[in-house]
Design goal:
Elements lengths: L8 H10 L7 E4 L5 H8 L5 E5 L2 H13 L6 E4 L12 H4 L9 H12 L6 E3 L3 H9 L8 E3 L9
Parallel strand pairs: 1-2, 2-3, 4-5
């Protein structure tokens, strides 16, 4: 394999600053072909699980991991909308992050902004976000501007 860096420099800086514990368990939802997960492997993280809805992307991630001798990464195909089971909310199974504002407060702050058609919203791969926000009673207003970052380089 070539020696191209997998993580963007900005991602590497944030990970090293805010997630320095390389022994921590990490899960990446929507991993695609595994770019970020493989970048974490290169930084020394070893307890990695990653999933994506698309079988072909998971297959590519597994292949790229093999090329980089990172076969210990657990890649799987899964639908993020089914992670918590029918009727369950993420808050039923995920512990809050220390210092994170409570869910109800976050929803109360976000709802007026996201439901306001006069507020520009910028995002990527928003279909899942819309599903999750709807579970909390937020109907995102239609004035969306979606930015998708792509690259022609193969990892």
């Amino acid at each position: 394999h070539d020696a191209l860096p997998i993580l963007w420099n900005s991602e590497r800086i944030l990970i090293e600053k805010y997630f320095p514990n390389q022994a921590a368990s990490v899960i990446e939802a929507g991993c695609g072909a595994g770019r970020a997960t493989l970048g974490l492997w290169e930084l020394g993280y070893r307890n990695l699980t990653a999933f994506d809805f698309a079988d072909e992307l998971v297959d590519q991630a597994i292949s790229l991991a093999a090329e980089r001798e990172a076969e210990a990464i657990h890649f799987l195909q899964a639908d993020a909308t089914d992670l918590f089971g029918e009727g369950a909310a993420p808050s039923d199974v995920v512990e809050p992050v220390p210092g994170q504002i409570p869910l109800k407060e976050a929803v109360a702050r976000l709802k007026p902004l996201l439901e306001n058609p006069g507020v520009l919203k910028v995002g990527q791969n928003l279909k899942y976000d819309w599903v999750v926000l709807a579970r909390y009673g937020i109907e995102v207003a239609p004035s969306l501007f979606i930015i998708v970052f792509t690259t022609s380089r193969r990892l």
